[in-house]
Design brief:
Blueprint (H helix, E strand, L loop, with lengths): L2 H10 L6 E8 L4 H10 L3 E3 L2 E8 L2 E8 L4 E7 L6 H4 L4 E4 L1 E2 L2 E2 L1 E2 L1 H10 L7 E2 L10 E4 L8 E7 L4 E8 L2 E8 L3 E3 L3
Parallel strand pairs: 3-10
Antiparallel strand pairs: 1-5, 1-6, 1-9, 2-5, 3-4, 7-8, 11-12, 11-15, 12-13, 13-14
């Protein structure tokens, strides 16, 4: 059902509010701009964002990035609002479609995303991966940067002991926990 058909159906049955969430593709790095302009037009917008840790110049810092880069969710009352203005909004590249119909996102998907976000900030966090003894790791900073090893144990709040292959044997080295990431398979 396209947005015009949905508006006609809602009007025919006298429904007060027939709200639906639609998926919108923004222009590159323009999610925030699209959100601002859509909200100015009276649309409800959900732009899920994520706090992620990133290593910069040997230090970990937190950055806020899009959970789904270039995608936003827009809710509109199909009996009273049209998708046509959404398509021409500043920052919007297009409304995502499958064939002739705009993609409708189920309410429970949006509610699930909102429910997983931090209640105060509205931001999502990725689950911290705890290293298990014997897990393969990569050292990403410090004197041993670029080496692979095996996680042995934690050594306090911010230090870990890892086994590195040095000089033909395994050597236990205590380094900052910030310098160690799980090895990607």
């Amino acid at each position: 059902m396209n947005d015009h058909t949905a508006m006609m159906t809602a009007g025919a049955f006298g429904l007060e509010c027939l709200s639906r969430w639609f998926l919108v593709l923004s222009k590159p790095a323009a999610e925030q701009c699209a959100q601002t302009h859509l909200e100015r037009q009276g649309y409800r917008v959900y732009y899920p964002r994520l706090i992620c840790s990133q290593l910069r110049r040997g230090r970990w810092c937190e950055r806020i990035v899009a959970l789904f880069p270039r995608y936003l969710f827009v809710q509109l009352d199909v009996a009273r609002q049209s998708l046509a203005p959404v398509r021409s909004t500043v920052g919007v590249a297009s409304v995502v479609r499958f064939g002739p119909d705009a993609t409708v996102v189920p309410d429970d998907v949006i509610e699930g995303l909102i429910g997983r976000a931090d209640p105060q900030s509205g931001l999502h966090r990725l689950a911290d991966r705890k290293l298990e003894p014997g897990a393969r790791i990569n050292v990403v900073a410090g004197a041993f940067s670029g080496l692979d090893g095996i996680f042995e144990r934690s050594a306090g709040a911010d230090r870990v002991v890892v086994l590195l292959s040095l000089l033909g044997g395994s050597t236990a080295v205590c380094i900052s926990a910030d310098f160690v990431v799980p090895q990607v398979a």
